[in-house]
From TrEMBL, chain A:
<dbReference type="GO" id="GO:0005524">
    <property type="term" value="F:ATP binding"/>
</dbReference>
<keyword id="KW-0472">Membrane</keyword>
<dbReference type="GO" id="GO:0005886">
    <property type="term" value="C:plasma membrane"/>
</dbReference>
<dbReference type="InterPro" id="IPR027417">
    <property type="entry name" value="P-loop_NTPase"/>
</dbReference>
<keyword id="KW-0813">Transport</keyword>
<dbReference type="InterPro" id="IPR003593">
    <property type="entry name" value="AAA+_ATPase"/>
</dbReference>
<keyword id="KW-0378">Hydrolase</keyword>
<dbReference type="GO" id="GO:0016887">
    <property type="term" value="F:ATP hydrolysis activity"/>
</dbReference>
<keyword id="KW-0592">Phosphate transport</keyword>
<dbReference type="Pfam" id="PF00005">
    <property type="entry name" value="ABC_tran"/>
</dbReference>
<keyword id="KW-1278">Translocase</keyword>
<keyword id="KW-0547">Nucleotide-binding</keyword>
<keyword id="KW-1003">Cell membrane</keyword>
<dbReference type="GO" id="GO:0035435">
    <property type="term" value="P:phosphate ion transmembrane transport"/>
</dbReference>
<comment type="function">
    <text>Part of the ABC transporter complex PstSACB involved in phosphate import. Responsible for energy coupling to the transport system.</text>
</comment>
<dbReference type="InterPro" id="IPR005670">
    <property type="entry name" value="PstB-like"/>
</dbReference>
<protein>
    <submittedName>
        <fullName>Phosphate import ATP-binding protein PstB</fullName>
        <ecNumber>3.6.3.27</ecNumber>
    </submittedName>
</protein>
Length: 270, 240
């Protein structure tokens, strides 16, 4: 009879990342007019890692997230300085195709925002735009695989022609994730993706994030600290436009280094 | 940063809950310290009434442990504490387990005192000298451990934790001394064996007091220093 040996290791569970830097920010500053909203942020986001951005309202976490796929370009008075790279390529390079960038770095917003079209059309819209599909069978395939990955296929496969806006909030958010996935992104940015969802829909999205990180790199802004603790490998704490601390999530929530981080996560901010 | 706090939350109710749990631990520590003090007195003076009191009061210690555990569960479920608050709750849950075990050791000494009071073997007061020294030392250590917890002060906790070595030495000295007494006067063997058991209980109390100090260091510094040498404790507290 072989002896069963149990060992309890206090070694950190390694994050299943490739150890490759997927996106990097160097001295990133964001200005709204003359007002400097982000003060020189440096950050490495590793491939297949989930990084959560936390911090009080107005701390710059969403603004910084939006730098990662140049969504801030859409705001006239907004100016970004410093350097942001995706696979070592400067995403603010003049020669870079922004539409292509946003396919590579997809985004899911706070409020689910499906197009006022059928579920099917919501998914194929992006692939068509990017010329990723040529035939009906290509489209069928991408619709099924995207909805499968977003965990929505079983619920909607018999009503792909019904409007996306007719789904429940949680389903709509998964439809938006499926829509982002459909253009084969490498990074998915999520800006408070569960804040409009009930706890069940939230846990489905969180479960989905866990599955998706095998294939994508994910950055998520959340006001829900428990959510950051549950889903992320690393957590970044922003405060008044500064990145105060970024560290392994288990460290941040048990033994943060900076007093401001401790005060925020323990509810001591006045 | 060698101190911590459990208050200062935006939510005053949260502060109140945390302060309450800390105060209850201190009350439990106070009760257990009295139990140890009385048990030692009862043993040295073969005072059966006092010993009986200690045995009867032990259930109060047990009840406090259960009550404080419940308070901690409520904080965990309602507040989902993080960082220093989480470590405070974890430290409390562990601390009260050791405090409760100190209570058990006090009861053990009290039971030995009851036995002794029934025996007709009498010992000279001088034979209790070492025992009394060790007892005073463990009481000092226990009070110090609870004080460091109250102040949430890692440096205080460290200096108290280091006292455990002396108590271990005291115990070895008692073992050697008791061996001599037994050889000198075999009529007292039963009584001396009982004193050895009581000495062992005091030695265990020292270990528990050290554990309590280690939980305080964990709470304040965020480093788990259990099962480590003194040098690691010192580096942890003084290093950061």
């Amino acid at each position: 009879m072989g002896a069963m040996q149990m060992t309890f290791s206090d070694e950190k569970k390694p994050t299943p990342t490739s150890g490759k830097v997927k996106m990097a920010a160097r001295d990133v500053k964001v200005f709204y007019g003359d007002n400097e909203a982000i003060h020189g942020v440096n950050m490495d986001i590793m491939e297949n890692e989930v990084v959560a951005f936390i911090g009080p309202s107005g701390c710059g976490k969403s603004t910084f997230l939006r730098c990662l796929n140049r969504m801030n370009d859409t705001i006239d008075i907004c100016r970004v300085t410093g350097k942001v790279t995706l696979d070592e390529r400067d995403i603010y390079d003049k020669s870079l195709d922004v539409v292509q960038l946003r396919a590579q770095v997809g985004m899911v917003f706070q409020k689910p925002n499906p197009f006022p079209k059928s579920i099917y059309e919501n998914i194929v819209y992006g692939p068509k735009l990017h010329g990723l599909v040529n035939s009906k069978s290509d489209m069928d395939e991408i619709v099924e695989s995207s909805l499968q990955r977003a965990g929505l296929w079983k619920e909607v496969k018999d009503r792909l022609d019904s409007p996306g806006t007719g789904l429940s909030g949680g389903q709509q958010q998964r439809l938006c994730i499926a829509r982002a996935i459909a253009v084969s992104p490498e990074v998915i940015l999520m800006d408070e993706p569960c804040s409009a969802l009930d706890p069940i829909a939230t846990s489905i999205i969180e479960e989905l994030i866990d599955e998706l990180k095998g294939s994508y790199t994910i950055a998520i802004v959340t006001h829900n600290m428990q959510q950051a603790a549950r889903v992320s490998d690393k957590t970044a704490f922003f405060h008044m436009g500064d990145l105060v601390e970024i560290s392994e999530t288990r460290e941040i929530f048990t033994n943060p280094k900076d007093r401001r981080t401790e005060d925020y996560i323990t509810g001591r901010f006045g | 940063m060698n101190k911590q706090r459990v208050d200062g939350h935006t939510s005053q109710a949260y502060d109140a809950e945390m302060n309450q749990v800390v105060n209850h631990v201190l009350e439990m520590g106070e009760l257990v310290t009295q139990q140890v003090e009385k048990a030692l007195q009862a043993f040295i003076h073969s005072d059966s009434a006092l010993a009986q009191q200690v045995v009867e009061k032990d259930h109060l210690v047990n009840k406090m442990e259960v009550d404080i555990d419940n308070e901690c569960v409520q904080i965990l479920v309602r507040r989902q504490p993080a960082a220093g608050d989480l470590r405070a709750v974890i430290a409390v849950i562990k601390t009260i387990k050791d405090v409760e075990r100190i209570g058990d050791q006090a009861k053990r000494i009290a039971r030995l005192a009851l036995k002794a009071s029934e025996s007709d073997q009498m010992m000279a007061p001088k034979e209790f000298n070492e025992f009394q020294t060790m007892g005073s030392r463990v009481l000092e250590m226990l009070r110090g451990a609870m004080q460091a917890f109250r102040k949430m002060d890692a440096e205080d906790a460290l200096s108290v934790a280091l006292l455990d070595k002396q108590i271990d030495n005291d115990y070895e000295a008692i073992l050697r001394q008791n061996m001599t007494y037994m050889l000198e006067d075999p009529r007292n063997i039963t009584r001396i064996v009982e004193m050895t058991w009581a000495g062992r209980a005091i030695e265990r109390i020292g270990d528990h007091a050290r554990n309590i100090c280690e939980y305080t260091i964990y709470f304040v510094k965020g480093q788990d220093v259990r099962h480590q040498d003194d040098s690691v404790l010192e580096a942890t507290v003084k290093g950061r």
